[in-house]
Amino acid sequence: MYVYDIVIVGAGPAGLNCAYHLSKSNKKVLILEKNKTIGPKVCAGGLTLHDINYLKIPKSYLDREFNQVLFHTSLRTQTIKFNQECIATIDRKKLGDFLVKRVKNIKIKTNAKITKIEKNFVIINNKEKIRFKYLVGADGSCSVVRKHLGLKNKNKIAIQYLLPKKYDNLEVFVNPKLFKSWYAWIFPHKDYTSIGTGCDPKYFSVKKLKENLDSWLKKNKINVSKAKFEAFPLNTNYQGFKFNNIFLIGDAAGLVSGLSGEGIYAALISGEEIAKIILNKNHKPERLERILLRNKIHNKILSLLNKSGPFKIIWFELGSLLTRINYFKKQGIRGFL
After folding, report:
1. Residue partners of 122: CB distance under 8 A and separation at least 6
2. For the segment 202-257, what is each residue's pLDDT rounded down to a tens digit?
3. Which end of the chain, N or C, is less packed with Cβ atoms under 10 Å?
4. Where do runs of H (alpha helix) occur along 103-191?
5. Helix, strand, coil percentages in the chain from 3-state DSSP, rounded to 5
6. In DSSP terms, which residues pair with 135 in a beta bridge?
């Protein structure tokens, strides 16, 4: 049997950043990753200003950088310009490579699927027993650690096509008839482009969403015959992060914004904050609390949109007009980027 102070399940941004901050201590830490390769994940691959500033990631890792967004409503197109590059796209394998390089003196075990969890140990691949003092669930929206704790998911679903074609602009489209309270996106990468949307299955069926996306693509003469189609869950159902000696971070904790779908920054911050709590029980996770407050506000806005029915279009048009005023544009940047 192997014994560790902390076992982290999942080598995504949350788990790797948690490990990075734990590596500064003398704790014995193990990361368990179910996949063969660290990094790749079904994701649109967007980094916000928060992510870029926090990681200080070299530009060589980024696919594209943008200082403006084309925001389309049913009636108008608004170009929202920023004073600097506020949004970037990145290949998740590259992001994983960058985060792994930051982690020193910590063992990472790949092809390690959790098959059983008990109070003080896990079993991987139905045979290897690993004992821990603390367990950190950083294993995404379909977390086995979260499931072990008996917490239900209320996942939103995102769908996308990956086109082997380059686009010049990062674009966002709001159209209540097609995408209800959410939006569609065009995220250009270095060698491909992500075009997708998402929904809450509670309010809108994924099947109908795909039909609407396909008809919208056809109307805009976007050929996806050679594109790869993907679907992925977004866990927005936060129910806490500490459960005795077990912690949840990132998507596993339900820290994805229900309004924007952004989850990388929350994953990074929660990873750091939980590492500090493990090392110092008196640590106050103030930055994590700010993310929880942001998500609470986002959920209230989303709830308002969901209840607005045909009046959604008014809210979207108003939002588009407000971006022309610097004060509201800055508040929008702070709230979403």
Report:
1. 7, 9, 32, 114, 116, 129, 130, 132, 135
2. 889 999 999 999 999 999 999 999 999 999 999 999 999 999 999 999 999 999 99
3. N
4. 144-148, 176-179
5. 35, 25, 40
6. 7, 246
Residue 308: partners with Cβ closer than 8 Å, 6 or more residues away:
181, 314, 315
Rounded distance between C-alpha atoms, residue 193 and residue 251, angstroms: 24
Residues 6+ apart with CB under 8 A from 85: 52, 65, 66, 67
Of residues 227, 104, 211, the one with CA closest to residue 162 = 227
Residues 6+ apart with CB under 8 A from 14: 138, 249, 250, 251, 252, 267, 268, 270, 271
Which tokens go with 234? 């977004």
DSSP string, 41-74: -SS--EE-HHHHHHHT--GGG-SEEESEEEEE-S
- For the chain, the distance separating the N- and C-terminal CA atoms, rounded to the nearest angstrom, is 44
In order, the DSSP letters of 237-276 are: ----SEETTEEE-GGGGT-S-TTT---HHHHHHHHHHHHH
**Rounded to whole angstroms, what are the CA distances from 47 to 29, 174, 270, 317?**
28, 20, 16, 26
pLDDT of residue 54: 95
What amino acid occupies position 277? I
- 66's CB contacts (< 8 A; 6+ apart) are 85, 86, 87, 88, 169, 170
In eight-state DSSP terms, residue 282 is T
